[in-house]
Amino acid sequence: MKRMLINLIATFSLAISLSATANTQVDNICKDAEVWTKIVDQICWSCFTEGFSLMGIGKKPDGASSNDPFCLCNDNLGVPYAGTKLSYFAPMRLIETVRLPWCSPTLGGITLQDDYIGMGTVNASKGKGFWNSHYFAFPLMEMLEILYIDCHQDGYVDLDLMYLSEVDPTWNNDLLALMLSPEAILFATPLAEPWCATDCALISADSAPESTFGCAGCDGHLYPFTGSIIGQKDNVAQSSLIAQRMISSLHRKGLAKKTMGDDNVCEASIAPFTPRSQYKFSMIYPRAEASAATANGSCCHPMGQSTNLWCLPVGGRMRPGMEDAVYMLWQFKECCLTLGSGD
User: Fold this and answer.
1) pTM (2 decimals)?
2) DSSP three-state, residue 6
């Protein structure tokens, strides 16, 4: 009896020790991005002015509305009203790309669940990896009470977790992802390589063409919409590609809307294919992209732009043990601004 009791105590002690060791290892993997403590100096504030246009005057990205200064829409009651066009990039979302399932650098480096089955991996030397991704509402201007513009508001006024890839069965299953996006068969063939190579060159020239919607610029292959990556050895480009796939997956599911173009000045619409010029990235963790002192002369960049332009040297924004990333997503909005009652 005494020996059995000793064995039980030893087993219990070993279990506690292993659990503590596992938790310590998880804490070492899941880092705190310090989003709140560095919110001032790690944000690319100048991105707000890129694409700013009032009354049709100003530079707009590809796929934007015409330069007509005035617009006509209906309010919530169906009453027509006239206004003037306003266009700008707004900081709307945060996207995390992580190796450890349920890890959230944005929420202070906590793990949302103690289930690490299917733990993500990154093997940059072989160009392979598996990532999970999280999508947060982050309306920065409204949160800081700096500016509120009634332009395609979605009701979010604070940090909110909107999407977890861990609970999406299509994220780790290529066959299920293929059912969601059957066009992947076309874009994953060698015939699409020249098309996507051209897309990489155009985006590196700071142009995000809407015509090459099936490509991901210089980051790699946009399809399938899963966390698996093959053929990309740059960790930074891998994380950027995962963020692109996240956005494309949300658009395909109707969870993200198009807020630019003549048809969307009055009201945002569902767009199964991602309006690529509608978005720009700026990394805020692990190395904040908050200075315009880069090769592209800006601290926010089009999705898929070569890391040689916004992240020198290649992979320079990553450090050993800091492969996870957090991106600020800037969304281009166009709306009909009026002093009267309108949407």
Assistant:
1) 0.85
2) helix
